[in-house]
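Late entry, evening session. Most of the bench is empty. Finally got around to the prediction I had been postponing all week. Sequence below, unchanged from the version circulated by S.P.
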Amino acid sequence: MTRKEFLAATLSLMVAPTVLGAPPPKSKSKAPAVPRRKLGRTGQEVSCVGLGGFHIGKQKNEAESLALIRGALDQGINFLDNCWDYNEGSPRTST
């Protein structure tokens, strides 16, 4: 298994229950579900796993994209990859 495959599998296991409407697992600790690291010299802590913005615009409708983003945030992912070049600057590629 490659690193890319491992990260994709891990992220899908974390986000899928939220997207599918299952309640998040109850945790006794208040720590984020995803480990965090400092972002350069900014002092900000970001999740080690990020959510790629290119694929957000590839969903069937806006509700699916929002569910993916909210699911990631609920699981402790706060590093979101965004770029104006993704999907020609449009939040969705299909209408």
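Two things to note before I forget:
Strands lie at 36-38, 45-47, 51-52, 80-81.
The mean pLDDT is 75.
Will write this up properly tomorrow.
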